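Q: Convert this sequence to structure tokens.
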Amino acid sequence: MHASFFQPRRIVVNALKTAAILITATAVNSILLDRFKTIGNSSEIYILGVLLISLNTTGYIWGILGAILGVLSVNYFFTYPYSNFNFTLEGYPITFLVMLIVAIATTALSGRVKKQREFARERTRLTEERQQMLIEAEKEKMRGNLLRAISHDLRTPLTGILGASGALLDSGDRIDPVSRRELLSGIHDDAEWLLRMVENVLSVTRISGGAPSLRKVCEPLDEVFSQAASKARKRYPQIKLNIHTPSEVALVPMDEMLIVQVLINLIDNAILHGGCDTVDLYAQTESGQVRITVRDYGRGIPPDDLDKVFDGFMARDKTSSDATRGLGIGLSICRTIVEAHGGQISASNMPDGGACISFTLPMEEVSSYAE
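A:
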């Protein structure tokens, strides 16, 4: 509706507030006069009323009006002769003038305080809006990064599947069994790669797509490692996966499916980019958290790439026969999942060769436990 519709209503509300406060001040002074024969504090009570009017109304006019009415009320109700105006008594004109000046000054001061309060509230609102805009911009940036990474990482396996399946359909009878098996194996490997990409995309959209907060349950760490190891050995039968867990039973609050996804991504990168089939997976408890580490014995991470390995735009391994099998979005999604759990992830190269990626998970108390 138009703003002018609300103006009369605001005037009525301010007038009612002013009248109510002045009536209350008059009632308090009447009680003091009736029971205690005290009239010396009548001016101070009206000044307090003027202050309340200024704080609870909009604009200066209501405080000034309250000050004038307060002066007149003191003169009429609480100055001898009662129920009659008398400004001729010695000393009263100066007293009333001082009261009016003090009341008006109080009105101006309280109005300034109220404006400062409104300004602080508006600044807080703008700050919150700016923060929300930054959050939305970061989400939009992450969506764009995700789409660009997916377009890179999906193009080559899809092309390979189409090429190999087309060759089998067009010339299947003329292809020898060994070549046919190689083509089928390539289709199978590319399909597995696409499946892992879909799992990664579902994991990151579950966190960043406005879904509810993570369902964190205390899970036994050795069981989580067992699930990840089982999937890793199924994908890489040749892998030598060494698992080391704390001697005591470690219950860690986590979203189990997402943390297993993190471990699978780290093992995938260790095998595909480390160039070594031996991977160590171990955990150790620290002060209030558990640190999980995946270490390989391969070629390591180029030193120039260590600070951006989790950004999702690592340069693909140009020496690989399959240019799409770079780090892709796997490590970026690992960071997203770990940070959503309140942890941190980092990468480093080992002095004796190979790369080491570790992340932490807080071990705060939760109300639900895995059965």
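The longest helix spans residues 92-171.
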